[in-house]
Each structure stands twice: as structure tokens, then as C-alpha cells.
Request: fold
Amino acid sequence: MKKLILALAATVVLTSSAYAESVRISVGSYNLNNLPFPVAQGLGLYKKEGLEVTIENFASGGSKTLQALVAGSTDVAVGFYDHTIQMQSQRKDVVAFVELARNSGLVLAGGKDSRFDPAKPETIKGAKIGITAPGSSSDFFVRYYLQRHKIPSDEVSIIGVGSGSAAVAALEQGKIDLLVNYDPAATFVVEKGVGKILIDARNDEGAKEIYGGLYPTSVLYATQSYISENPETIQKVTNATVKALEWMKNHTAAEIVETLPPEFISGDKETYVKAVENARAIFSSDGTLNEEDIKTPLAVLQSFNEKVAVAKIDLSKTYTNEFVSKVPKAASN
Reply:
């Protein structure tokens, strides 16, 4: 009888492994706005949900991830919420279903020789400004700033420099005068003596000063067709991610960093831990998207994106809290 029980148990293990659900998840970059995703990965939470995850990283920025999702070469994207609005203006249904970062997390940093003074917006003219990639939220940040201060976009040069150490190196080497980026790059700029932060939207006050409100950024999103056809898979991805958010609330920055895959950590670990601590305020506590906060990205996009400005955007179709609301209590404690 004992042998029979052991044999049956082994069969169950083999069967569950054989029937693990495959899901392809792509991430736009290893900036800290996306941190809850690799934390969930590092803690093995997707595997515990019975998922076999194939991960692809597009280090050049979220716009590449969005392209992959629309083209059907990935199932779920770790990208920025504002992409869902852009896609609706192009009559494509892309839906956010878990919020990772409730706030921008962006900073505008100046190199040692930068002449830009935020108190005098016109001093940004002639600057070479580094962003993660064209079409990214860092790109939107710059264009919205210029638009608000009535400065033509052709008065500056906007250059894609990626994120993390590569972005900081571009500023340090003088390839750019200003850098709009996320942590860990924001912390690296200060800790390495490369420059200083001139505009800081990592905290709520800074975001409201720049955007007029909180600016949700990193989310998990998928096409509506994939969500409709694979609700159980989406629920499992949601369960694991929400559990990671809850875990992060109750652990130190150093403990969070210990869960990460080595390739996610930029620069030296000590400075990276400081970057995680500096970014803690931006993370969602439970993955829920706030219907008021998502109006901020729409206002930003409408200010300079012609397609969004003329389109009738229905924000209710750009996100859903359905799956977050169904996360089992055991998965969020």
C-alpha cells in the first residue's frame, strides 16, 4: 500500500509539471518601476501558481515590449500604463490588469556642467536630453514639460540612452546634458557624483508638481483577446504578482535585492540597495489601479499626442481590477 501511495504521489508531481501553463512575459527594462515582477520571479511565485514563464527583456525600453505584445510574440507585458491609452487611440485593446508602480518614479538629472535651472524653464533650450527610448514615459515627461512651458520640441535634442548604468554613463561622458530616468539611475547619478537631481517625481508631491497628480506607470498588461481567452492564466499571474507586492511591503530594501536575478542588479549592490529604498514610495500595495489617478496619464498624452487628443478614449477599457479583486487571501498574506 505504501509503495502504491508513493507511486501515485510521483505521478501527480509529474502530471502537474507536465501540465504547467506556459506564458510568455516581456519586460521593457530593468528600471525599478518594474521591480515587483523580478521579485515575484525570484521568490518563485509564478512557478508556485503552476506557470512556466518564458521571459524576454527588451533593455531598450517599453515601446519594444508593446510592439511585441501587439505583434503576438509575447502574451503579457511588464510596461507602462500610458501605453494602453495610446493603443486605444489606434483602436487596439490593450488592458492593464495589475498595477506595479502607482507613481512616476522619474527624475530629471543634470550633469556637472548643466545650465538648466527648473526655476527658469527656458534654460532647457539647446540641451541634449537622454531618455530611456522614444515613445517611452520618459519621452512623455520631457514633451509634457516642454509643452507646459510653451517650448518647441525642436529647441532640444531628445536621445534614447536606455536605463540603469548605461544611462548614467551617457550623462557622465557628456553625451547628454540632462537625463530623464528612473531608479536605479537616479540614485547612481547622485551617489557616483555624476550630477544632481533637478526635478524629482518619485514622491507624491513631486509628481503632483510635474503632472498635476499621481502618474501610474508600471503595470502588467495584455491584449483583451488574450485576457478573454486565458482568464485562468491571467488570474495566476495576478495572484503571484500581488503576493510579491505584499511581500515587498514587509521586507527591507536589502532583503528585496536578495531575491533578484543577478542580471537585474545594476552597479554595485550597496548603491543598488539605496536605489530600492529611494524608490519604495512608488510601489502599489495591492495591485489595484485607481480610476482617478489614471486620468493623469491621459491628460499628459492629450497635451502633445495628436492621435490621443482627437480620439474618444474610454479609460474603463484600458484597465481592469477584476483579477486583483479575486486574488485569494492566502495569496496576498
In short: The domain at 107-200 is CATH 3.40.190.10 (D-Maltodextrin-Binding Protein; domain 2). The chain has a mean pLDDT of 89. Residues 128 and 175 are 8 Å apart (CA to CA). The first strand starts at residue 21 and ends at 27.
